[in-house]
């Protein structure tokens, strides 16, 4: 998962930007932003499946009626190794902003609203993976309270490592 940055005006100057749940009509713009933002973009079918299964945490940023960013997340259920049943982990899969709208606070706001959606749907912890080379994203996640847990060697299909980052509910 990752976030790339680029422009410079704060969110207040980004026009009339709002964060909302994704709609089916947003998928072409989401796929386009993903392709412009990542070396290895997701397929259209991945976005359709996430929209169908995890709409509660599939958000878009809209500026003047145009989708300029998205965040795609889900709740994973994992066995709690301390013997307390099942943990609900909010997993942020992908977050990206249209290149000309970067560095305006839109990614930060998408992240904030995504975290709220995941906490609101019962997550006890949040996690994400980000390319080790994506220092701007790593810094944004650190600023939001995420901690670097470990490096996952060869995580991406092109061989690049990922940093696993986590945030507990108490670290809000």
Give structural notes:
The chain has a domain at 11-128: Aminopeptidase, CATH 3.40.630.30. The model is unreliable at 1-14 (pLDDT under 50). Helix content is 26%, strand content 33%. It has 172 residues and is of the alpha+beta class. The protein is globular and about 50 Å long. The chain has a seven-stranded mixed sheet, sandwiched between helices. The chain has helices at residues 27-37, 44-53, 106-120, 135-143, and strands at residues 17-21, 58-63, 66-79, 86-97, 125-131, 147-152, 162-168.
What are the key terms here?
seven-stranded mixed β-sheet; 172 residues; Aminopeptidase; alpha+beta; 7 strands; globular; disordered N terminus
Which helices and strands, and how do they pair?
Layout: E1 17-21, H1 27-37, H2 44-53, E2 58-63, E3 66-79, E4 86-97, H3 106-120, E5 125-131, H4 135-143, E6 147-152, E7 162-168
Parallel strand pairs: 4-5
Antiparallel strand pairs: 1-2, 2-3, 3-4, 5-7, 6-7
């Amino acid at each position: 998962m990752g976030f790339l940055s680029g422009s410079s005006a704060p969110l207040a100057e980004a026009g009339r930007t709002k964060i909302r749940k994704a709609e089916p009509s947003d998928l072409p713009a989401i796929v386009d932003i993903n392709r412009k933002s990542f070396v290895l973009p997701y397929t259209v079918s991945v976005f359709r499946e996430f929209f169908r299964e995890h709409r509660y945490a599939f958000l878009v940023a809209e500026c003047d009626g145009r989708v300029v960013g998205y965040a795609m997340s889900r709740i994973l259920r994992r066995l709690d190794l301390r013997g307390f049943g099942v943990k609900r982990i909010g997993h942020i899969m992908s977050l990206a902003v249209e290149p000309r709208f970067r560095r305006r606070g839109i990614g930060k706001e998408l992240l904030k609203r995504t975290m709220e959606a995941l906490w609101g749907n019962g997550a006890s912890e949040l996690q994400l993976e980000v390319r080790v080379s994506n220092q701007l994203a790593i810094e944004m996640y650190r600023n939001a309270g995420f901690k670097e847990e470990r490096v996952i060697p060869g995580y991406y299909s092109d061989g690049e490592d990922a940093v696993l980052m986590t945030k507990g509910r108490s670290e809000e």
